[in-house]
């Protein structure tokens, strides 16, 4: 984990957050600026700036991010559907440079996004 990274600090519990899931490799917390009734950020403890920085050795962790999202969605009974999103880089809307997956649910979504 990086010393000055906001999400690394949340993962180390140095900054308060509403954690909804954690294990040795992943932690998840409520977004402080939710874009849907359910908006959870799911992060690896390993500091990667963005998805484009992940390598083959990160494949299992990347898959687990999605599985954690599905678990949280089931717990929240998001039976009408939910969306998972990874913003990769400033041009895609990434504002915190620690890889994270957005779980959004509880409202209707449009296609295409953005």
Structural write-up:
- It is built from two helices and five strands, in the order H-E-E-E-H-E-E.
- With 114 residues, the protein is of the alpha+beta class.
- The chain has one domain (6-105): HIT family, subunit A (2-Layer Sandwich).
- A five-stranded antiparallel beta sheet has the order 1-2-3-5-4, with helices on one face.
- Strand 1 and strand 2 (26-30) form a beta hairpin.
- The N and C termini lie far apart (30 Å).
- The mean pLDDT is 96.
- The CATH homologous superfamily corresponds to HIT-like
Main sheet properties = 5 strands, antiparallel
What is the count of β-strands? 5
Text of the CATH class:
Alpha Beta
Helix content: 10-25%
Based on the coordinates given, report the CATH architecture: 2-Layer Sandwich
Q: What is the multimeric organization of the chains shown? A: single chain
Give the number of domains: 1
Distance between the termini: 30 Å
State the secondary-structure class.
alpha+beta
Give the CA-based shape. globular
List the main descriptive attributes of the protein structure presented here.
114 residues; alpha+beta; HIT family, subunit A; five-stranded antiparallel beta sheet; 5 strands
């Amino acid at each position: 984990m990086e010393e000055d990274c906001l999400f690394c600090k949340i993962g180390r519990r140095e900054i308060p957050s509403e954690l909804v899931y954690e294990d040795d490799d992943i932690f998840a917390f409520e977004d402080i600026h939710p874009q849907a009734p359910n908006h959870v950020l799911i992060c690896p403890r390993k500091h990667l700036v963005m998805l484009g920085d992940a390598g083959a050795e990160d494949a299992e962790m990347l898959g687990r991010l999605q599985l954690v999202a599905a678990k949280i969605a089931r717990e929240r009974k998001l039976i009408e559907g939910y969306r998972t999103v990874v913003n990769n880089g400033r041009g895609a809307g990434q504002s915190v440079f620690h890889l994270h997956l957005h779980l959004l649910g509880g409202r209707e979504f449009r296609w295409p996004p953005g």
